[in-house]
């Protein structure tokens, strides 16, 4: 994991400017709270049992949040791509050890902000809490969509939906990773792929 | 659905006092934003396709949030009991039509606040946004726990977990409702119940 200098990228700036009212000097000040870091494919940002002390913004790459059960089976809760925030939110909120893992699926570049710095950011800027509200609203929305998807859609419907909405994800992920994302076996995924291409 | 006078119950007052810094006169003012209403068993608070314009707090009773798929099958996303907030949060946030239903599973008593009133409450009190942050953090936590439960636990593990953590729920719900809550068939539930009692 390599940390470099504290300069926000333009996508992060744009999102913050949309979410809270800040002038350019304030935006520069906010930038100082973030650290830019690179992460190699396969590297972990967080492991089960550790404290989740940071919130991340993805400039480039893909990260997977997943659980491992007592039998060693992996279950993907979420995958996050460019220009989105991510964290193990429940652990970040509760300050209790995480029940999940976060791992880079590709070489990735992230911006991170620590828990205490985030509290300071929220209290230092009049509209700082709106930034946190944006992240929480985004969290509620994507987790609910994932739950809806897992509860109500069949394997075939989940694959077709992804093919329609995010074909890029299908190109970027290995068959195994894509299968865990869809919560199906690699064999079912191969069958779905060949059925749709024939 | 019967609306009665605007007086907050003590549990709601206690939660608000814990979450945001308010003095007693301010707490009385906040109470004026809420309406108390009763709902009969089976009655709907929200249907798919409608706008979700309120946030609710349950004084008494139980409400179920569920989806119905194109084949008419019901999938329970969440069940909420006394002293918790609930809403179709994604629809409440996005101001787009809801994709889910909210129905009373028992005769229930609720406090509700409309979307515009909630915005006014948040802007009228210096710490008003912390109230919304509390609700969103609660939302992220319970939805993530539900997703974790559905992804990683078997039918038998889900039933045992409920029996251990919330035995009251098993008493209160009918077998059919309990089965949808556990995301299993009524037959599987009957088998689990008889296996554990034998």
Number of helices of chain A: 9
Largest β-sheet summary of chain A: 5 strands, antiparallel
Please provide the ordered H/E string of secondary-structure elements of chain A.
EHHEEEEEEHEEHHHHHH
Question: How far is the first residue's CA from the last residue's CA of chain A?
Answer: 43 Å
Name the poorly predicted regions of chain A: none
**Largest interface, by Cβ-Cβ below 8 angstroms: which chains and how many residues each?**
A-B, 30 and 30 residues
The spatial strand order of the largest sheet of chain A comes to 1-2-9-4-7
Q: Assess the beta-strand content of chain A as a share of residues.
A: 15-25%
CATH class of the largest domain in chain A: Mainly Beta
Using the 3D structure, state the CATH architecture of the largest domain in chain A.
Sandwich
CATH fold topology of the largest domain in chain A: Jelly Rolls
Q: What's the helical proportion of residues of chain A?
A: 40-55%
Rough outline of chain A? globular
Molecular structure report:
Helix content of chain A is 48%, strand content 22%. The first copy, chain A, has 2 domains: 2-152, Jelly Rolls (Sandwich); 153-198. The longest helix of chain A is centred in the C-terminal third of the chain and has 25 residues, at 128-152. With 198 residues, chain A is α+β, with helices and mostly antiparallel strands. Chain A contains 9 helices and 9 strands. The first copy, chain A, is globular. A 5-stranded antiparallel β-sheet of chain A has the order 1-2-9-4-7. In chain A, strand 5 and strand 6 (74-80) form a beta hairpin. In chain A, helix 4 crosses helix 5 (128-152) and helix 8 (175-182) crosses helix 9.
């Amino acid at each position: 994991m390599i940390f470099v200098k504290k300069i926000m990228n333009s996508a992060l700036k744009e999102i913050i400017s949309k979410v809270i009212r800040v002038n350019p000097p304030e935006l520069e000040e906010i930038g100082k709270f973030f650290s830019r870091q690179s992460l190699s494919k396969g590297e972990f940002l967080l492991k089960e049992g550790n404290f989740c002390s940071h919130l991340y913004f993805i400039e480039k790459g893909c990260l997977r949040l997943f659980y491992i059960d007592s039998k060693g089976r992996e279950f993907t809760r979420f995958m996050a791509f460019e220009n989105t925030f991510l964290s193990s939110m429940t652990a970040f909120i509760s300050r209790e050890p995480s029940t999940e893992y976060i791992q880079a699926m590709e070489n990735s570049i992230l911006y991170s902000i620590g828990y205490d710095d985030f509290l300071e950011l929220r209290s230092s800027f009049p509209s700082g809490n709106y930034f946190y509200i944006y992240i929480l609203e985004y969290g509620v929305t994507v987790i609910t969509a994932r739950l809806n998807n897992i509860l109500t859609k069949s394997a075939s419907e989940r694959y077709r939906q992804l093919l329609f909405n995010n074909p890029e994800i299908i190109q970027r992920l290995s068959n195994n990773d894509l299968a865990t994302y869809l919560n199906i076996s690699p064999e079912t995924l191969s069958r779905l792929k060949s059925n749709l291409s024939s």
